[in-house]
Amino acid sequence: MSDPQFYVTMAAAGLAGLGMLIVAMLNGWRGWLDLKRQELRRGDGTPAAIMPGASARIEIADLKERIRKLEAIAAGVDL
Length: 79
Fold this sequence. Notes:
It is a single chain. By secondary structure, this protein is an all-alpha fold. The chain has two domains: 1-46; 47-79, no CATH class. Helices cover 77% and strands 0% of the residues. The protein has two helices and no strands.
């Protein structure tokens, strides 16, 4: 274990691993910043991909109504 080549190899491997981790984290940070820029461009603070279309909104409203009715039935309330 007193071989200097071992220590140099371990240090190089550690630096390479740290470099890969830093690059991955930097790419994630840039992606997050791009997402926030898109949200700011829209102006309402919601991501563009989450906003449903008209038919999807109608379907969601229908599902909410069904859930409300099922909850009323479970609670024993007559509609």
